[in-house]
Write a structure and sequence with these properties.
Length: 302
């Protein structure tokens, strides 16, 4: 049984650069250390690994578990603290983690079918709303354990510092995103812990009729931002992009009591952030601006 895919090294270097190579070379030792430390047996890795090493396994009692090894140890620690804070609210259970190893053992959601497999978009949005509702609750703990919303949107500030007003992005969209972000941050009346990446692939079926979340970013901020990642996925499922966006936001507004205009404002800022990230990664930024355009249309409809 091959425990490290042939293309994993190439994928990790494409994401993190050459300084990740030593970590990738050390993976066999990290897996062995994790097995000894946690008392588990690692089996096959998940398909399509990208940012982390994740594998199926079993513990001493034969219970199915997941081992997650991360090059970005601080991010893994934030993820585990977020999942722990969401315990009992619809998150996958954290069994144990070790900061020094950059390793975590999680329960395995069975069957683990992602929400993306629910092709009826209305049904998927209903499920999202229920998951959102379960996660949405007051947080008790240290805010410093998580990302801040301003830091999460730091890519826009980095873009401005790098290019001034003469960068490749349409300047009026950058200004609009900056203005929307400042208004949203200053009018956030309650900063709460949010998942931060609550899209279809991070919501998994557990048992016959339950759903759990995985892979949170852990951001302290406006609960409205929690809607955005779901809205960016499968944008033309059961309709054209504008129709799907309007329908989803209407459902969220009705079921969760959220203001459509505020969702739209976050979407505008998020689209420009996507474009800034694309420039940092030397990728095409146009998709990010397209996101902002769609949400601006939604704002006009609100």
């Amino acid at each position: 049984m091959k425990r490290i895919p042939d293309n994993f090294h190439e994928k990790m270097v494409s994401v993190y650069g050459s300084h990740v190579e030593e970590w990738v070379r050390s993976l066999p030792q990290l897996i062995a250390k994790s097995e000894a430390h946690f008392g588990i047996k690692v089996e096959a890795p998940f398909d399509n690994l990208s940012y982390n090493y994740i594998a199926h396994g079993v513990n001493r009692e034969g219970k199915a578990i997941v081992l997650k090894l991360s090059f970005m140890k601080d991010d893994l620690a934030k993820e585990m603290r977020t999942l722990t804070a969401f315990e009992g609210k619809g998150a996958v259970q954290v069994i144990e983690w070790n900061d020094e190893l950059g390793a975590a053992v999680l329960e395995r959601a069975i069957p683990g079918t992602p929400l993306s497999a629910t092709v009826d978009d209305r049904v998927a949005t209903e499920i999202f709303c229920e998951v959102f509702r379960r996660l949405r609750s007051p947080f008790v703990g240290d805010d410093g354990d998580f990302h801040t919303m301003r830091k999460w949107f730091g890519g826009i500030a980095r873009y401005r510092n790098r290019f001034g007003s003469n960068g490749p992005l349409p300047e009026h969209w950058v200004v609009r995103a900056e203005e929307a972000l400042e208004e949203l941050l200053t009018t956030t009346t309650e900063s709460v812990l949010i998942h931060g990446d609550l899209h279809h692939g991070n919501i998994l079926r557990k048992g016959d009729d339950d759903w759990v979340v995985i892979d949170p970013k852990g951001i302290m901020g406006d609960i409205y931002f929690e809607t955005i990642q779901f809205l960016l996925n499968y944008v033309d499922r059961d309709g054209d992009c504008d129709t799907v966006l309007i329908r989803r936001v209407e459902m969220m507004s009705e079921r969760l009591g959220l203001d459509r205009s505020r969702i739209a404002q976050w979407g505008i800022a998020r689209g420009v952030l996507e474009a800034c990230w694309a420039i940092e990664g030397r990728a095409d930024w146009k998709e990010g601006i397209d996101i902002s355009v769609r949400f601006a249309k939604l704002l006009n409809e609100a």
